[in-house]
Amino acid sequence: MAFTLAPRRSFRWPAQVTPAVALLLAISALTPASASFCADYLQAFKCPKLPSFDTVDISKYTGRWYEVALTARFRFQSEVGLTCTTADYTANGEVNGQKRIKVLNRGKRSVAGPRQAQVLLASVNSNRIATNLGIVCRVAVNAAKASAQAQALLSANASASAAATGIGGTSELLGAANPLAAFVTSVSSDAEIIDNAVRDFQMALNTMNGRPQPKDFSGAKSKMFKSISNIQGAGGRLIQAAFTGRTAAQGLSGALNGLSGQNAKTAANGLQSFLRGTRLYFAATSIVRLATAMVPTVLSMVPSPFTRVGQGGFPRAKAIQSKSNAGQLFVIFFGQKSKEPNYIITDLQGDASSGYSLATVYTCYQGKTTLWLLSRTPSVTQSDIDSALERVTTAGLRLTGANTLLPTDHTTSWCSKYRKRIDKTN
């Protein structure tokens, strides 16, 4: 719920309550600003350093892997509409102590024509919403820091503050501290609503990414519209919060300017900087606009008749094992090698002697995380998935919003036929 400043009312202290005592009592009742969701959300943009499985035997890691889930399903155009996705790794010798692997990723393009364009457009908008949500969360986190700093100053200098500012100054402090804390809580809450809605939208869009039955198609469209509605509602509240937050910050800044001491002046200047630098209004407006733009796109989606769609996939690539860590590799597409390993094996189930059965692979570039779940078989149990993801989630990777782990469809009958056909050509 967006926070609205209450109108000021005249106030007189009871005779037995001095301004200093009143201020101390008020400080004890101040609402702490909570931006825990936003702090976690921003952490995901910093490419968390996940542990790697450094005891992997690369010679036993080669062979065919089935992509059973992916977080970046709609981040890249080449991924849209792909089903039956596989990764074939072939040993390619060793140079200077570094083992090399040939890489071939392939998949069946199950969506083409208007549907592919619609899915791509909807995915672009949902990813842009996630980007703007990062701006919203930066505002909330900065406001939470400013609120905490101001409350610490009040708590440390309550008696001196009351004596220096008098009843009027104390009253102003009482009216200024809580609104900013409430603003932070409100913004973080609505940001979490939007993040969950983006997750639900991406999961429904993943259904559209294949060839669903009419009932599943209708259900996915309903979920997408509900997600859009939730994003619009929370975005509208964020627009309102942009104004109430500015008012709250101005009030607290004025109150701090009434205190003595350099710390109070520094905190007041920090709030002024926060006011000048806030982009909440523009980010919230963009979120609402992007959500609204998705409505006609979803409306135009209709069930497609079954048609044969061509093969999709990626160019052939090669991978070079890191010298310092067996579970880290440099995967090279188009001859471009990254400075840091961009293929991190974070978890493996099974062992080299009996065979690896499930792999969790991670990469992150400029704050954009990609996580693959690879299996030796086209299907895995939910318990195996939970076990495979435990290590990365414990390390702090968020798998929600635009980073939602989306399953890859291997159930269609054409997957086995497709794989038999491509195996004959190799």
> What's the number of helices?
10
- Secondary structure class reads alpha+beta
Shape: globular
Mean pLDDT: 78
Account of the protein in words:
With 426 residues, the protein is α+β, with helices and mostly antiparallel strands. It has 10 helices and 10 strands. The protein has helices at residues 19-28, 36-43, 58-61, 113-156, 158-208, 214-257, 262-277, 280-299, 382-394, 414-425; strands at 63-70, 82-95, 98-109, 311-313, 317-321, 328-332, 343-351, 355-365, 368-375, 406-407. The chain has an 8-stranded antiparallel barrel. A hairpin with a 2-residue loop joins strand 8 (355-365) and strand 9. The chain is globular, with a radius of gyration of 27 Å. Mean pLDDT is 78; it is low at 1-32 and 165-170.
List keywords for this structure.
single chain, 426 residues, alpha+beta, 8-stranded antiparallel β-barrel, 52% helix, globular
Write the topology of this structure.
Elements: H1 19-28, H2 36-43, H3 58-61, E1 63-70, E2 82-95, E3 98-109, H4 113-156, H5 158-208, H6 214-257, H7 262-277, H8 280-299, E4 311-313, E5 317-321, E6 328-332, E7 343-351, E8 355-365, E9 368-375, H9 382-394, E10 406-407, H10 414-425
Antiparallel strand pairs: 1-2, 1-9, 1-10, 2-3, 3-4, 3-5, 5-6, 6-7, 7-8, 8-9
Helix pairs in contact: 1-5, 2-4, 4-5, 4-6, 4-7, 4-8, 5-6, 6-7, 6-8
